[in-house]
């Protein structure tokens, strides 16, 4: 049995910080979280051992991840007790069948953006502006599609983080449901409103990578004789944003 605090990778540690951060003034401190797609239960274990949550419900669907999660939880401790006292493992698809639980946080990390959209779409009990739940998301792909779904379907963005893991930059989002549909620009869907507003660390690197990606897609569509108006417009907007960042940086350096 392992007695020390388990430390996950940077992405899960950052996601745990967003889970722990208050959603509103006066929020209860003994948070109950649901960790969807828990796999090894690394996030669930960390949330308990760090004291970020008092209880976690960890879910997954295949037998393998469920067995790994239960074994890992059994072998970890808090104050000399097995974490099985603090973490429930439930075999289910996404959030199916969990509407009866009392919880303040939902974490869905390490899945494709389209899968995350499907999980949220099928969890109608989350679509309630009176239910104050913070949802922390770490998509592996399809960030544009995920943001589009969230904005269009009444989710309000609370915070965003950019995390470098090896050679990749990952986005971690925190949202809550308020029922207000929003229709932001393409560049916000691609890069995130919080990133553009706050110029988050790693944002410029992410912007350059997005520019290169859109440029390659634009070239491929031109070569294939496909419609390019959307990508051409987006490419122009991203270049303008890069120019604004450069101008701001130059101005800052001359005034300091």
Polypeptide structure, described:
By secondary structure, the chain is of the alpha/beta class. It has two domains: 10-183, 3-Layer(aba) Sandwich (Rossmann fold), CATH 3.40.50; 184-256. It is 43% helix and 22% strand. The chain contains nine helices and nine strands. β3 (77-78) and β4 (81-82) form a beta hairpin. The N and C termini lie far apart (54 Å).
Write the layout of secondary structure elements.
Blueprint: H1 10-20, E1 32-36, H2 42-49, E2 55-60, H3 63-74, E3 77-78, E4 81-82, E5 87-91, E6 105-112, H4 113-121, E7 134-141, H5 143-152, E8 155-165, E9 168-177, H6 186-191, H7 193-198, H8 203-224, H9 229-255
Parallel strand pairs: 1-2, 1-6, 2-5, 6-7
Antiparallel strand pairs: 3-4, 7-9, 8-9
Helix pairs in contact: 1-2, 4-5, 8-9
For the record, the count of structural domains works out to 2
- Mean pLDDT value: 91
- Here the CATH topology of the largest domain equals Rossmann fold
As a percent range, the share of strand residues is: 15-25%
CATH class term of the largest domain: Alpha Beta
Q: CATH homologous superfamily of the largest domain?
A: Vaccinia Virus protein VP39
Q: Give the uncertain stretches in residue-range form.
A: none
* Overall morphology: elongated
| Biggest sheet record | 7 strands, mixed
Structural class: alpha/beta
Topology as a string of helices (H) and strands (E)? HEHEHEEEEHEHEEHHHH
Share of residues in helices = 40-55%
CATH architecture of the largest domain: 3-Layer(aba) Sandwich
The count of β-strands is 9
Gyration radius over CA = 20 Å
In which order are the strands of the major sheet placed?
5-2-1-6-7-9-8
Number of helices: 9
**First and last CA, distance:** 54 Å
